[in-house]
């Protein structure tokens, strides 16, 4: 018997290390060739690492949450023969396609898809003692792929007994639960004191989000400007366009109109469509308008980017927005689709709220926050009339954007949205 050492592969150009976010095996487990061993994260995405050999796991080189350098020993596997190390590029070529787990603005490079391991036959149901000890009040441990399958199957993972490391729920556990007719665990009844304290280690993309937010708020002095916008005419136009749209055209929300309004507004104030390299003290004003759209996904917040909005019609903006949002929510968004924004829109309108204080997506200098549209009485000079009013809550980097310029920019957006015909005027 020999020993085969798997090292942390090179998961992308310029990437020197990655964070270990998930183990699929533990010491003593048998593994098959192409079986997924672990998941690592770099730039807000996870990449699964398959085994190039069959054998038995002897040793794991890191704990979940650890940062592992490229080429550092990751797994040792006992194999038949002399063993050794993988040849230089063998592991990277076998990496599974990057799967988004949680977001802020970037994703791991897309790699070639690895063959998926064969599904194991459903094992026997857990012993009654294990079932009785199953605590449905605890947050279930499962990979993003398992969570997505459970959601699509309508399965509450809290009712599934995990047989993986630390009680992690595997695909086989989910298959077994579904095959048994998804028999629920009897809920606890009656009133009882609760004394449990759950410790949740901040790892993976959630840690990246925390780092990104800390970076933004610690380096950028924010100024937030809130303005009311009368969207009555815009909503009437939107309803008409949706009613008359062609079968191949997407349904319009307010966001494509705001995106086109942004294009016109930044043409007059290019300083807002910029990124600030605060280390070098250089502002980069961009001719291209790459609009980041803050999107909530099952794994967390991501910011897919609609590139070159200045060259898109309102229908193009809507179609691309829908495509990117679906890719982000399903975990298939690529690195290029999650990086390079020059200005960001954050919309909480569906949840309500009068105003918000959005955090700028570093290193950008502005973010536009959309709040709920509500019917309010507005004085027209002779009487109160019902109008559809929406607040825009916009934050700016006060180091490079003065309050006057911020207000002027938002007022221009207000004019364009309140007179939506202007959005379609060229030149």
TrEMBL record:
Cofactor(s) required for function per UniProt: (R)-lipoate
Q: Which residues form the Peripheral subunit-binding (PSBD) domain?
A: 141-178
Q: Which domain of life is it from?
A: Bacteria
The EC category is: transferase
- Could you tell me which residues belong to the region Disordered? 106-147
**Leader sequence segment:** none
SUPFAM superfamilies attached to this UniProt entry? CoA-dependent acyltransferases, Peripheral subunit-binding domain of 2-oxo acid dehydrogenase complex, Single hybrid motif
Query: Start and end of every Lipoyl-binding domain?
Result: 3-78
Q: Which UniProt keywords apply?
A: Acyltransferase, Lipoyl, Transferase
InterPro entries linked: 2-oxoA_DH_lipoyl-BS (IPR003016), 2-oxoacid_DH_actylTfrase (IPR001078), 2-oxoacid_DH_E2_comp (IPR050743), Biotin_lipoyl (IPR000089), CAT-like_dom_sf (IPR023213), E3-bd_dom_sf (IPR036625), PSBD (IPR004167), Single_hybrid_motif (IPR011053)
Q: Tell me the protein family, please.
A: Belongs to the 2-oxoacid dehydrogenase family.
| Description of how the protein assembles with itself and partners | Forms a 24-polypeptide structural core with octahedral symmetry.
Protein's recorded name: Dihydrolipoamide acetyltransferase component of pyruvate dehydrogenase complex
Which organism's genome codes for this protein?
Sinorhizobium numidicum
């Amino acid at each position: 018997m020999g020993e085969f050492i798997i090292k942390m592969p090179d998961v992308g150009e310029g990437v020197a290390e990655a964070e270990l976010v998930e183990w699929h095996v533990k010491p003593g487990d048998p593994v098959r060739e192409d079986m997924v061993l672990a998941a690592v994260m770099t730039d807000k995405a996870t990449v699964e690492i398959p085994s190039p050999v069959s054998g038995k796991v002897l040793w794991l080189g890191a704990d979940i949450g650890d940062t592992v350098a490229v080429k550092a020993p990751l797994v040792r596997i006992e194999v038949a023969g002399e063993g050794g190390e993988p040849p230089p590029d063998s592991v990277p070529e076998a990496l599974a396609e990057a799967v988004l787990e949680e977001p802020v603005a970037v994703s791991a490079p897309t790699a070639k898809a690895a063959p998926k391991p064969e599904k194991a036959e459903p094992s026997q149901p857990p012993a009654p003692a294990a079932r009785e000890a199953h605590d449905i009040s605890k947050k279930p441990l499962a990979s993003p792929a398992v969570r997505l399958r459970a959601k699509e199957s309508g399965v509450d993972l809290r009712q599934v007994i995990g047989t993986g490391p630390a009680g992690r729920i595997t695909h086989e556990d989910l298959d077994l639960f579904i095959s048994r007719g998804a028999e629920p665990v009897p809920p606890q009844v009656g009133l009882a004191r609760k004394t449990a304290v759950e410790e949740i280690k901040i790892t993976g993309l959630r840690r990246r989000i925390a780092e990104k937010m800390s970076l933004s708020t610690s380096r950028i002095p924010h100024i937030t400007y809130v303005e009311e916008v009368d969207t009555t005419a815009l909503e009437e136009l939107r309803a008409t366009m949706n009613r008359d749209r062609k079968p191949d055209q997407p349904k319009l929300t307010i966001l494509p109109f705001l995106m086109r309004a942004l294009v016109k507004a930044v043409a007059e104030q290019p300083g807002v469509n910029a990124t600030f390299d605060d280390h070098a003290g250089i502002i980069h004003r961009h001719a291209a308008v790459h609009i980041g759209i803050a999107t909530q996904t099952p794994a967390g917040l991501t910011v897919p980017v609609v590139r070159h909005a200045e060259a898109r019609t309102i229908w193009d903006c809507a179609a691309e927005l829908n495509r990117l949002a679906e890719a982000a929510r399903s975990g298939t968004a690529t690195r290029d689709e999650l990086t390079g924004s020059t200005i960001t829109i954050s919309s909480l309108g569906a949840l309500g709220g009068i105003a918000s204080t959005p955090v700028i997506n570093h290193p950008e200098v502005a973010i536009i926050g959309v709040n709920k549209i509500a019917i309010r009485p507005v004085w027209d000079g002779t009487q109160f009339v019902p109008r559809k009013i929406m607040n825009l809550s916009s934050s700016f980097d006060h180091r490079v954007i003065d309050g006057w310029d911020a207000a002027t920019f938002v007022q221009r957006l207000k004019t364009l949205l309140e007179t939506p015909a202007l959005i379609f005027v060229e030149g």
